Amino acid sequence: MKNSVFFNFLFLLLIKHKSKHIAIFIISILIVFLISSVLFISNSLKKELFITLDNQSDFIIQKTNNGKIFDAPISWIDDFSSINGVKNVQQRVYGLYYFMPENVYFTIVGVDLFEENTNKNIKELLSVLNISDFLQNDSMIIGNGIKKIFDKYHYFDSYDFKLLDKQSLNIKIFKDLPKEANLVANDLIIMDINLAKRILNIDEEYSTDIVLNVPNDLEKQNIKEQLILKHSNIRILQKESLKKEYENMFNYKGGIFLVLFIVVIFTFILILYQRYSMISSSDKKEIGILKAVGWSIKDIIKLKIIENFIVGFMAFIIGVIFAYIFVFILNAPILKNIFIGFSNVQNDFILNANIEFTTIVTLFLFFIIPFLSAVLIPVWKIAVIDANESMK
Amino acid sequence: MIKIKNLNKIFNENTKREFHALKNINLEIKNSSCVILKGISGSGKSTLLSIIGTLLKPTSGSIVVENENIAKLPDLHASNFRAKRLGFIFQSYNLFDTLSVKDNVSIALIPLGFNQKQIDEMVLKALELANINHKKDELVYNLSGGEKQRCAIARAIVNNPEIILCDEPTANLDYDNSLIFIESLKLLKSLNKTIVVATHDPIFDNLDFVDEIINIKNGTICE
Fold this sequence. Notes:
The complex is a heterodimer.
Chain A: H1 3-16, H2 18-54, E1 59-65, E2 68-70, E3 72-73, H3 76-81, E4 87-99, E5 104-111, H4 120-126, H5 131-136, E6 139-142, H6 144-152, E7 158-162, E8 168-176, H7 182-185, E9 188-192, H8 193-199, E10 206-207, E11 209-213, H9 220-230, E12 234-238, H10 239-277, H11 281-292, H12 297-329, H13 335-340, H14 357-384, H15 387-391
Parallel strand pairs in A: 5-9, 6-8
Antiparallel strand pairs in A: 1-2, 1-11, 1-12, 3-10, 4-5, 4-11, 6-9, 7-8
Chain B: E1 2-11, E2 19-29, E3 34-38, H1 45-52, E4 60-65, E5 68-69, H2 75-85, E6 86-89, H3 101-106, H4 116-129, H5 145-157, E7 163-167, H6 175-190, E8 194-199, E9 212-217, E10 220-222
Parallel strand pairs in B: 3-8, 3-9, 6-7, 7-8
Antiparallel strand pairs in B: 1-2, 1-4, 4-5, 9-10
Helix pairs in contact in B: 4-5, 5-6
């Protein structure tokens, strides 16, 4: 059998039988679109968050007492710096500020602009800043979500933060962050560390927690023990544990979707199988005719495999393209919020395109193999029965 | 020469629905002859035709075509035999309604490994012989019964087979078209084809080019 002749006939059949394939084609596109969308969103969020986490310090140390967390004294910086193998020990100041009119919490982060070891993410956000201008006035940089809320209440230039002693502290809005930073900075207010301490009611000699790096991975367990020896009332959070927690969270959410999609695919395959098992008399007749004019069972199955592979492959490509447009151009309305979960300030973050080739290949195999099996088993059953019977 | 020896066909063997369709058939069909298998519906003539055409396998017995027993050929050999040496003409034409006449005829040549140019030439020749060339680009769906039958004839002869099997070829044709079909058969006979027709149509009874009429009743050949 000449391949060119065979493919001419195959494409002729596909064009002539397009109405026969249309329903399966549309359902396939829909399934691939949904699965791809979820995978694209989860991969994109995962990657963004992991990049953020990678820029965090290796250890976060909080002061605890009877399970409660208290502000950590900054004198601990010297204590921890004296441990061999520990680098970049610094204080962190952050906390939540309640904004009553909207019943939401803003996250205030205090930064020491002269500290060399400031978190890389914050550094990136502040890279466009003219530090002297920023420090001259009591200023802040606000995330996109906060900007929207402030605009709504006409706080265009500054905002009066209410302090615990009922006084207020006027802070100028120096700049708002671009929408691209929304995933990490949507509800964020960045200001000088001392201002942040005042607003969050943290004593000057204290901080929210202490962070430090341990460059040698093999030393981490040993350093952990030494930290506890220095101060027993501490809680140590490790970057790796945080990563694992995030990973579990995404795997959990992704897993729920995966189970749903397995159910959907399974149902689809059953429908497909049934559709071909109850193959129409015209389909049966076609197989019978081909057999009668000298096509072998192998030729007929080859024809049906390639015919359905083309339908499945095109549906897959279109589904993936639609998913790409939906997620990375239209920014996945509705679906992305399921992944991001609860957020104080309505988050309108942008998903950055991040597609792993292996994910696409795996998805393709998981789709096309059951797809072809569901079509081919009934076709094979018909192909092996008598051509006379098929043509009746 | 087609030699059929002790041929039996039992459907649904060893079940309650067991049916003995052909009983101990012995028959010889000479090369380039035209043989009519006559009988009422359910007599077994179409079953015999299908077994000769390797579309059905007999329960026992042998069919030898030019020294080759085709009774129990595996699928690949049977399909090869059909593609190279057989042409079928069916009662209900069995064409692809959504394809053109030309495409329907070329289907029979695809398994034979010809290139597109060779296929086009052979199809054109067959269409001319079957007198349907003027409708080559027409969809089969739009053809009349007689035209469909001519298209089926073209498909049956396009591979230049030695044997042409016709199963109730005039059952769906009016008298005029049946006569045209008979003329086509006569032409095929003149081209030295071996023709086997299974029919109950009396129009085949007194044809000068028919070599033998075999009556089949209840799965057996009546003398």
